[in-house]
Amino acid sequence: MHPLPTFYVLIFTQLNHYAMRTLLLFCAFFIFSGTAVQAQDANLWKTLSKITYEKKFDELLGFKVDVPVFGEGIKTLEGEIVEVSGYIVPVEGYKSHTEFVFSAYPYNMCFFCGGAGPETVMEVTSKEPVKYSTDRVKLRGKLLLNSDDINRLMYVLIDAELIKGGMDGK
Predict the structure, then answer these.
(1) Residue 141 falls inside a structural domain
(2) Rounded to an integer, what distance in angstroms lies between the CA atom of residue 83 and that of residue 111?
(3) In 3D, which of 150, 125, 164, 156 has the Cα closest to residue 61?
(4) Within 10 A of 134 (CB to CB), how many other CB atoms are there?
(5) 167 phi and psi, to 5 degrees?
(6) How far is CA 65 from the centre of its chain?
(7) Closest CA to 34 of 162, 127, 166, 157
(8) Hey, what long-range contacts does 143-147 have (CB within 8 A, 24 or more apart)?
(9) For residue 76, is it within any domain?
(10) Residue 1 counted as domain residue
(11) Nearest Cα to 143, choosing from 97, 92, 94, 102?
(12) Cα–Cα distance between 41 and 102 in angstroms, integer?
């Protein structure tokens, strides 16, 4: 038997292994990159909950108030584009649908009903109107931190947009 066909079989086998390895790496990259975004979304509220408070005297109110102290993990998120899932909280004056409160928990368990802390809600300003829904939705926007204005929430999401296909964002 001539050695040439064996040579071609070896090259073809090596190409198949190379192609298979490349395909597997390619698939793994897409699977894990999607998982990283999901992990960021799932862990964002958990990360945002890692705060402490300090008492500071408020000149306007005339007494000490709790002011959030953001940990390093939270500070690194300031100004970053994040994805977060949660619930739209119906508030008085919810008309424009571009400014609303967003909560990690449904309305009956949220901060305003006494079921959670202030770190579980954020102010949202969206690019486009977001229709109110009782379903969980996913948003993407730039996260800002607020420790100065006690009349506002400590987390603010600006330039937010509803992620289609995210949770029930259809």
Answers:
(1) yes
(2) 20
(3) 150
(4) 11
(5) 55, -120
(6) 28
(7) 166
(8) 143/77, 143/78, 143/79, 143/80, 143/81, 143/82, 144/78, 144/79, 145/70, 145/74, 145/75, 145/77, 145/78, 147/67, 147/68, 147/69, 147/70
(9) yes
(10) no
(11) 102
(12) 14
> Hey, how many other C-beta atoms are within 10 angstroms of the C-beta on 13?
10
CA angle 41, 44, 47 (to 5 degrees): 155
Domain that holds residue 84: 42-167
Tell me if 51 sits within 8 A of 69, measured CB to CB.
Answer: yes
The Cα–Cα gap between 162 and 143 comes to 15
Q: Report which of 105, 99, 154, 152 is spatially closest to residue 128, judged by C-alpha positions.
A: 99
Could you tell me the CATH number of the domain that includes residue 128?
2.40.50
List, for residues 126-159, the tens digit of each pLDDT value: 999 988 888 999 999 999 999 999 889 999 999 9
Residue 26 lies in a domain: no
Residue of higher predicted confidence among 14 and 38: 14
Q: Which helix (H) or strand (E) holds 34?
A: helix 3-48
Query: CA 77 to CA 9: how far, in whole Å?
Result: 53
Number of domains into which the chain is organized:
1
Q: What is the pLDDT of residues 19-61, one digit of tens each?
A: 445 433 433 333 333 433 444 555 899 999 999 999 999 888 8
Phi/psi zone of residue 155: left (φ > 0), alpha (ψ -120 to 50 degrees), beta? beta
* DSSP E strands, 1-71: 51-58, 63-70
